[in-house]
């Protein structure tokens, strides 16, 4: 349903996201993980056509037969919300503080041609659908009168208003306390038509997603079915990420990845992870391609577990 091929994002001469390719099927929930500065948000913003000024995307992304990259802004406005919608980390910056939340939910529908009266009715329905108690009262409230968790539910109602085919969530629960976070995740799992979920929290991905993409240095370095990748990570970066989390495969010790994520443009050539990797050799000066060895080996299994590493974990 969503097919992304060779998606790159650049700002001036800096390549911030490089040749990213993946797909998301109908109803599928895909996690996008990686340390801060890996290019996760830029990938999502490129799909939404919401890149900041001076930042451009190339490559192709198609959703339900429509192009998302390289489309004029006028056409994008029409697609955004209807085809793909996004929930951001900080709902307070995304909501208008001077407008009642019911009117804000209704507005995204009237912008897409729904009549005002019908949009108001649907807004209350949607606020109920995201499990806000007493939706009529919530609709009349201003954002500051709601809790952080309630505001995030309003954002989800807005994202769902025009029945998108794909929902993208970028760290939607980081600012919420643990119990509210859990409820929000259950709700997202229930209402998302198909999901791209960005987070640092590997446990959240493990509970929510069927597939996972691991990004580092603006590239996807490993991807595949969640169980495969988390139980048997192959890329040394994924191995490090898992070892540093509480989801470490049995027998590994809680560890950290040495060094820090370089600033954009400061990643080494070849394998982007090689200056932090204990297994790097001269071979790693050549960039490894993201491939699924099972597809090229003697007995192709084709579970779609791919990685870009010259010295993978066995
Ligand atoms: N407008 C911009 N101009 C130049 N560089 C940018 C711009 N926006 C982001 N970057 C750089 O691109 C890289 C990737 O940014 P991005 O926001 O996608 O990271 P991320 O994986 O979402 O990180 P986080 O987990 O912290 O949200 C970072 O090094 C960032 O500094
Ligand atoms: Mg981000």
From TrEMBL:
One GO term under biological process is:
peptide transport
Alphabetical list of InterPro entries matching this protein? AAA+_ATPase, ABC_Ni/Peptide_Import, ABC_transporter-like_ATP-bd, ABC_transporter-like_CS, Oligopep_ABC_C, P-loop_NTPase
Q: Which GO terms describe its cellular component?
A: plasma membrane
What's the main place this protein lives? membrane
Instruction: Give membrane topology per the record.
Output: Peripheral membrane protein
Looking at the record, the residues that make up the ABC transporter domain are: 2-242
Matching Gene3D superfamilies: P-loop containing nucleotide triphosphate hydrolases
Keywords, in A-Z order: ATP-binding, Cell membrane, Membrane, Nucleotide-binding, Transport
Report the subcellular localization. Answer: Cell membrane
Q: Name one GO molecular function term.
A: ATP hydrolysis activity
Protein family according to the UniProt entry: Belongs to the ABC transporter superfamily.
PANTHER family (UniProt xref): DIPEPTIDE TRANSPORT ATP-BINDING PROTEIN DPPD, OLIGOPEPTIDE TRANSPORT ATP-BINDING PROTEIN APPD
The identity of this protein, by name, is ABC transporter ATP-binding protein
Question: Upper lineage ranks?
Answer: Bacteria, Bacillati, Actinomycetota, Actinomycetes, Streptosporangiales
């Amino acid at each position: 349903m969503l097919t992304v091929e060779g998606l790159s994002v650049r700002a001036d001469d800096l390549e911030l996201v490089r040749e990213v390719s993946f797909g998301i099927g109908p109803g599928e929930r895909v996690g996008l993980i990686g340390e801060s500065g890996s290019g996760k948000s830029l990938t999502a913003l490129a799909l939404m056509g919401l890149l900041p000024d001076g930042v451009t995307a190339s490559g192709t992304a198609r959703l339900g037969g429509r192009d998302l990259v390289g489309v004029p802004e006028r056409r994008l406005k029409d697609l955004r919300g209807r085809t793909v919608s996004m929930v951001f980390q900080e709902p307070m910056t995304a909501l208008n503080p001077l407008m009642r939340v019911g009117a804000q939910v209704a507005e995204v529908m009237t912008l897409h041609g729904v009549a005002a009266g019908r949009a108001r009715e649907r807004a209350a329905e949607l606020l109920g659908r995201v499990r806000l108690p007493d939706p009529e009262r919530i609709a009349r409230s201003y954002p500051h009168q709601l809790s952080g968790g309630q505001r995030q539910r309003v954002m989800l109602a807005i994202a769902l208003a025009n029945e998108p085919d794909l929902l993208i969530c970028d760290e939607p629960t980081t600012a919420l306390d643990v119990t509210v976070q859990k409820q929000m995740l259950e709700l997202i799992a229930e209402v998302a038509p198909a999901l791209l979920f960005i987070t640092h929290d590997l446990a959240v991905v493990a509970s929510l997603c069927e597939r996972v993409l691991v990004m580092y240095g603006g590239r996807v370095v490993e991807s595949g079915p969640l169980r495969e990748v988390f139980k048997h990570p192959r890329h040394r970066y994924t191995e490090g990420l898992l070892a540093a989390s509480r989801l470490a495969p049995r027998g590994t010790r809680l560890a950290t990845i040495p060094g820090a994520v370089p600033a954009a443009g400061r990643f080494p050539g070849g394998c982007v992870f090689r200056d932090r990797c204990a297994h790097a050799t001269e071979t790693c000066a050549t960039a490894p391609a993201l491939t699924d060895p099972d597809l090229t080996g003697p007995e192709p299994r084709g579970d779609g577990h791919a990685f870009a590493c010259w010295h993978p974990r066995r």
